[in-house]
Amino acid sequence: MQTQDWLFVGIFIVLAPLFPLIALLIPRLIAPRKPNPIKLETYECGMETVGPAWVQFKVQYYIFALIFLVFDIEMVFLYPWAVSLNLLPFYAVVEGIIFVAILVAGLLYAWRNGALKWA
Q: Is 35 among the domain residues?
């Protein structure tokens, strides 16, 4: 192995940190700076805040959203498998069935624990 083979790695190590730094420095140099007390206020959808800003939400809403997100992402993985199902070998079909069985088991677990009840 020659030194020239490692030249590209060295160039990458030197240049890689520079690109994010340049991307952060350019706006700092050319962006207009006009601080204003109104601009520094907290923005709440254009409305003045009423009451305490700290409101405790039920954890169940987050669990419901997390379960939706997990199953939604799993469907993204399942779609290409379903489209090419007739072209796949037998072991790939069995792996897909095992994958769906794990999803169904997770859904049943969440259902039995009451995570899918909308309060």
A: no
> Rounded to whole angstroms, how far apart are CA atoms 93 and 96?
5
Which domain range does residue 83 map to?
59-112
44 band by pLDDT with thresholds 50, 70 and 90: low
Q: Is residue 102 part of a domain?
A: yes
Q: What dihedral do alpha carbons 37, 38, 44, 49 form, nearest 10°?
A: 80
Give the pair of three-digit tokens for residue 48.
């003045």
| pLDDT exceeds 70 at position 46 | no
In a domain, 105, yes or no: yes
Q: Write out the two tokens for 102.
A: 């794990």
* Cα angle value 75/80/81 (rounded, 5°): 85
